[in-house]
Amino acid sequence: MSLTHAGLSGRLSSLLGGLRARLGGADAAGSGSLPVRDYVNVSAASPSRVMGFDQPLVWVTIALLLAGLIMVYSATIALPDSPRFANYTPHHFFSRHLLSIVMAVSVAAVVTQVPMATWERVAPWLFIASLVLLILVLIPHVGKVVYGARRWLPLGVMNFQPSELAKLAIVLYASDYMVRKMDVKERFFRAVAPMAVAVGVVGLLLLAEPDMGAFMVIATIAMSILFLGGVNGRMFFLITAVLLGAFALMVTLSPWRRERIFAYLDPWSEKNALGKAYQLTHSLIAFGRGEVFGEGLGSSLEKLHYLPEAHTDFLLAVIGEELGFVGVAIVILAFFWMVVRLFNIGRQAIALDRVFSGLVAQGVAVWMGGQGFINMGVNLGVLPTKGLTLPLMSFGGSAILLNCVALAICLRVDIENRQLMRGGRA
């Protein structure tokens, strides 16, 4: 009886040993084999982890880029009929936008190869570089003026907008700052005040262009990263109150901003409909014409020189007119899914004790979600008119480039998360 029991035990041990060898062979040369249950959990509960990167995030990003390309082409094909664009071909904006997307995707592919440790080291220097460019764009004959705003640096291939780089720089700098100040995050003057000064300097430079919309996005990003990093709740609400007070003061002291607010509150009055609320009223007309399923791709009337900047700030209105409520809802759902996914990537990184990477991913989520919300709100008449583009979709070379770079950094965060969860190194 004892011999039979010993024989069965030996066979069972050999079978378990073979199973371990099969399951653990792939990692035998790496960091050592894990328990059998860990391999079963990884393969059964989370099958997506065997992939090297987040494929759904990549496909949603590509879908938004391609949808933006199609809608930019639809919104600009008739622009050469206007005297202002008489020297342009019908395909000019389409070609420029396509070139921007190709450049952005190419740069993003390279960025995914850069370790997060490198971004953490260069974060302060990138922030300083963005400040230098924000100063440079204000110099006469250096910065390009469009509609009275000096926001662009002409680079030949594209007009580069330093405020777009500042958004990425503040994400990286604020995340690195919170990691360095983690031990004093409960103390206002040591944790919050220096960051407030940095955001204030950026704000002064942006308001000098002027570009209040970009300042709002950057302030929101910085505040969100401070909050997600664990800053005391009372300090957070105090800073929020100060910022809201500052924005209210800027509107009160600026006659043209004040007029824009009044026009937003009563857009259909004769004075406002032909003045400050002209874009808003025609945007609402576009949505009204689109109804549920839209007038059909290419069939917008508002883009025929009625709705100014239809290919940049008001691209969503063209989508609403041509593709209707269904098209707008799909765009909103795509952005919502992307923001949730980026927050999940960030939360996963923090759970793996990679606080900088986690805050970066969540900061980019706030950037994409916040700017997208403001643009959509402006198009739908929920918010006062503000010159902010729809991320990944509106026409604009530097915006597309920095949006793709930011998402590529988040993809790198996800790649390193997966490497760590498989027992490797980030």
Major sheet characteristics: 3 strands, antiparallel
Strand content: under 5%
Mean pLDDT over all positions: 84
Query: Structural class per helix/strand content?
Result: mainly alpha
Gyration radius over CA? 26 Å
InterPro entries: FtsW, FtsW/RodA
Transmembrane segments: 57-78, 98-116, 122-142, 188-206, 212-229, 236-256, 323-343, 355-374, 394-415
Family: Belongs to the SEDS family. FtsW subfamily.
Main location: membrane
Structure write-up:
This protein has 426 residues and is mostly helical. The chain has one domain (65-421). The protein has 15 helices and three strands. It has helices at residues 2-24, 36-45, 55-76, 92-111, 116-136, 162-180, 188-207, 212-228, 233-253, 255-265, 270-273, 278-290, 315-351, 355-380, 397-421, and strands at residues 144-146, 149-154, 159-160. The protein has a three-stranded antiparallel β-sheet. Strand 1 (144-146) and strand 2 (149-154) form a beta hairpin. Helix 8 (212-228) runs antiparallel to helix 9. The longest helix has 37 residues, at 315-351. The chain is globular. The model is unreliable at 1-9 and 18-50 (pLDDT under 50).
Topology:
Elements lengths: L1 H23 L11 H10 L9 H22 L15 H20 L4 H21 L7 E3 L2 E6 L4 E2 L1 H19 L7 H20 L4 H17 L4 H21 L1 H11 L4 H4 L4 H13 L24 H37 L3 H26 L16 H25 L5
Antiparallel strand pairs: 1-2, 2-3
